[in-house]
Amino acid sequence: MAVSSGRMITRSRRALTIVDLFAGAGGLSEGFRQAGFVVKAGSDYDPDAAATYRRNFPRAKTIVGDVRDPIVREAILGVARGADVVVGGPPCQAFSQVRNHSRIIDDPRNSLYREFVNIVGEVRPKAFLMENVPGMAQMGVKEQVAQDLSLNGEYLVEPQLCDAADFGVPQTRKRLLFLGVHRSLGVAPPTLAGSGVTSLVTLNRYDGKAIRYVVSSREHLGQNLADVLADPFDTAAVTASQAISDLIKLTAGRQDDLLSEGLPPAESAYQELMRRGLSDEALVNNVSVPKVLADTALRLAGIPAGGNHRDLPDELLQRYISGAKWGPHNGTGRMSRRHYYAYRRLHPDMWAWTLNTKADSVYHYSQARCLSVREFARIQSFPDKFTFTTDDRKGAIEGRIDGGAAHSRYRQVGNAVPPLLAHAAARSIADRIRESALEDASVDGATPRTN
Predict the structure, then answer these.
(1) Which of 92, 145, 185, 352 is the catalytic position?
(2) Which pTM was predicted?
(3) Distant-in-sequence, close-in-space partners of 216: CB < 8 Å, separation ≥ 6
């Protein structure tokens, strides 16, 4: 026990609570929920992402709108006050350098980031997590953000660059995490420790009679991490096939959902983890697969697993191959450079590269097709019971991003924080809060103590 402001404080195992700002579909919330947190609320400007959040977190309050709107902001503050942890990934459009004598929090393009900092300052949670793109780690910016988030020393802040693949996500995805704890807790912010597999395992190209890609690795502390990656029952590192091989029979043009009892037996521990919580009668949603053009199928046949457009012979780089005309013609008779990013095939024995928000950002390692939203979600570590949807309203509505419902679902997955990465952060934050004898004390009036 500890004494604070003349009041005896006892440790408790009550569930910790979070509020998720700029929540999107809810990747951070899902990871924290899996770690035992109660999700009080999530907010986002995009009504389609908010619809997904509402469906998957029915007990939480979903707040839709611009956080800079006074009504929306007050709604967020009304539910956030008293939350143990505030999390979020505010867009940060401008990375002003220290040498420019301009702080990023003062740049009007970063008003959403400023709102996150200000809400933390008003709510004063025990801890917070802010995630952002790796570019924020550039010289001077990371230090600025840590200083802003410290709120003049009230919080201890630890920035760290993490790769999701080091935390059991079948995808390399680097995110800069700022983990902060209130100084009164008397504990340091946690440092996340992953497997380190991404720095030791690579996919190498061999150009012989046939181009092929092969996984190789260096030993670490006497252990070959390629063996860890190849083991379907070891979830420290997960390959593309270990993530989605049980969905291999999905076909291009498929539209129907899938009954979970129709799934083949899980082929890896990761697949078992993703299926957890599904009943035999449950529907596995988001298994529709876009149609594939004849030209695309021909090109995919010329790309080995793990490869891309650079592996294509010259005749497959022509704009039109099968004779079918599609899309605008650039006048050269060849594919435009903007098409090249699309022709990338997964390797079954390696994790995926960073997914973006488009269906054609990745193709199956053995089938001539894109991935379904469910397979996107598997690679992002969303469980199968997590459903991606859109707002029922049609047409243009405030906050909606153009592109249609199908594209919105891919975008929601592609923009999310992988839940397994969020889970690792959540457990570390929970451990820090539990370590403190001030767990049940209000931050207000608490007597700071040092290690």
Answers:
(1) 92
(2) 0.91
(3) 201, 202, 204, 226
